[in-house]
Amino acid sequence: MEYEIEALVGDDYCSITAQGDYFVQFCNPPLPTLVADNATLGAYNYDVILMLDTSGSMFGEKITHAVDALKNIINALPEGDKFNVIRYGNKVRSWRQIMSPADQKTKEKAAEFLDNITVGGSTDIQGALLEAISLAEMSETGRIPIILFLTDGGPNVGGGDVQSIVSSITNRAGYQISINGISLGTNDLTGWQLVQRVTQKNRGLSAKMFDIGAFPVEIPKKFGEMREHARSLRGLSDIKFKMNGEYVYDLTNTHFADYAEGSDLVVLGKLKDASIQMVPFVLEYTDVEGTVWTEDKLVHVRTVNATDADDRFTAGQAEYNPIKQQWAVTAVHQILEKRALAQSEEEYGLLTTEAKKLSYAHNIVSPVVSFLVRKPKSSANLIDSRLGGNSDERERRSSGTTQETHEIRYQYRKLMWRPNQQDGLEQAHDEMQQLLANSEETVEDKNNLWMALGSSPLMAFYKLNDYMNSKACLALPASLSGQFKLIALSDSVLEASINHDQIQSVTITSADGRLDIGGDRGITLTRGDVTIDLDLESEFHFGPWVARRTGASLHLALGDDTLSVLITPIDDRIDLEVSGQLEHTDGMLEEFAKIDVQLIEKQSKSKQMERTTLLINDKFAPAESVVVDSYDENQLTQRCWRVENVLLN
């Protein structure tokens, strides 16, 4: 928001501008000059503590680019700064026990420490933050301590909930340290909630970043903003505007946690009477030495009329009031900040409803509302007089009538579209429909398992939860050898002989006899003393199964279609695909079905990632993209995410 205001000096550091009964008040108070050694003025040196999450979920490109980002931050530190690095997973480890000077040799040593980082385990955010606070407490008078922690998830060490962790950290930091956090490439709501609450309570900023490849540039850029914000530690704190209710009402925040010289303290609200010319209030604040100051202020109200307003701020609307709009936008923003700190579901819901009401009333695009914007059929409809067109004579559509063009301008969003491409809203709609479709498929898949057992060396294959239709291949122990019961029903048993790291033969028994797959004889059915040539049988019943030959494969399905097995001999081994429900069966495959495998990082269609992280039964496991012998007779090989010996853990 822009306004022309007169330069203010001395005690006149506040101004009020009003349009109608809405007003905006700017205050830029000079910092007191009474502090010993002029400690509140000038440039400052920083004590920087950088924290990196090294839990298992950071495996792959995420940890690589996060390390590069921290190196870039360290290389940019001026020589007057000091710094340290903390890595945290199950355990917390500081690079050094004291803060180190930011000279070139020390920076190179820190880079070596970061290059040797490995990932694994859980996330002890609380322990790491307490360690960082201990280092920050070593800061000398006149220096600014600042902590930046990078994480891709919530805390899962120590058993504390988000609120207890926030309280513990805030009480220990004592509002004397700027704690900042960035959530990396994840939609973990608990982790993001923790980042927001810790930073808001401890004079810091928070951010969420999804573009892993941009970490080396975007994280240092964000740290620059956090560093500037931390200057408030050498400014004023606990600033309160005690406004007079006889003059103003419906105010935005009047209590500010901190203030650094050069920034603005902004209060918006409504005047009791649009003719009010002076507004009295009391300003109270605390300086860096803890002294509380109180000032009585009386500020003149400068009024502007709608006809005086610059067209840049009115969007061409005759009745548009930019101060009123900014009041509403600020109010919504502050309600959402309170919502992030909500202590209960009821409080969260009430604040969401309040933000929605204001957003709809003032046409504000915010995280709690959605607006459908329909574009004209032709981009030519958007051409106005500034581009040489006549706004009253727009392009005529096929109907032959002149169509009115509606332009919607929002305070923080500029809606644009390009010919021959989807606009953002259409693309978002399509993506949402795809997500909903995938979600429905996922719900179905919980009761309709698909897995495969095969290849050489022997692996278990699982479908993963992403749109790329990728799979995980979990390597089974090479020591796995012998006769194993794969599926046991009340009236039939499917067994496999596993040797030399592959399935060598499969036997299915029932009251009808025995089916043998593998070996030199291919697929044979034995009933008593009679061996039947299955090449002459396209489909037949075998106990509870309906059996059917499909090429070289044998397909078995239960009569009620709740379970099917495809058995395929491939060279000197046998592969199996299983789909359906295994929860009412016994055997090895029923145990394998209990393994829940999920993909953490979204895959790119344009770039093949070589490493990623899988979540296997709530434990993070590093995975490598490999090409393996396929379990499908129609394709020789396929690519999957390989995890070593996960079933032994």
Q: Any key phrases for this structure?
A:
649 residues, alpha+beta, Immunoglobulin-like, Rossmann fold, 4 domains, twelve-stranded mixed sheet, eight-stranded mixed sheet, 11 helices, elongated, disordered N terminus
List how many beta strands DSSP finds: 33
Mean pLDDT: 78
Biggest beta sheet summary: 12 strands, mixed
First and last CA, distance: 57 Å
Count of DSSP H/I helices: 11
Strand and helix layout:
Elements: E1 14-19, E2 22-27, E3 46-53, H1 61-76, E4 82-88, E5 92-94, E6 100-101, H2 104-115, H3 125-136, E7 144-151, H4 162-173, E8 178-184, H5 189-201, E9 206-209, H6 215-229, E10 236-243, E11 248-249, E12 255-259, E13 265-271, E14 278-286, E15 292-303, H7 311-314, H8 322-340, H9 345-361, H10 424-447, E16 449-454, E17 459-463, E18 471-475, E19 482-488, E20 492-499, E21 502-510, E22 513-518, E23 523-527, E24 530-533, E25 539-542, E26 545-550, E27 553-558, E28 563-570, E29 573-580, H11 588-592, E30 597-599, E31 611-616, E32 619-629, E33 637-643
Helix pairs in contact: 1-2, 1-6, 3-4, 4-5, 8-9
Quick overview:
By secondary structure, this protein is α+β, with helices and mostly antiparallel strands. It has 11 helices and 33 strands.
How is this structure best described in words?
The protein is an alpha+beta fold. The chain folds into four domains: 14-35 and 237-304, Immunoglobulin-like, CATH 2.60.40; 46-233, von Willebrand factor, type A domain (Rossmann fold, 3-Layer(aba) Sandwich); 310-367, no CATH class; 449-648, no CATH class. It is 23% helix and 32% strand. The protein is built from eleven helices and 33 strands. A twelve-stranded mixed sheet has the order 25-26-27-28-29-16-17-18-33-32-31-30. The chain has an eight-stranded mixed sheet with strand order 11-13-2-1-15-14-10-12, with helices on one face. Strands 3, 4, 5, 6, 7, 8 and 9 form a seven-stranded mixed sheet that branches. A hairpin with a 2-residue loop joins strand 31 and strand 32. Helix 1 (61-76) crosses helix 6 (215-229). The longest helix has 24 residues, at 424-447. The protein is elongated. Residues 1-10, 33-41, 377-429 and 439-446 have low confidence and may be disordered.
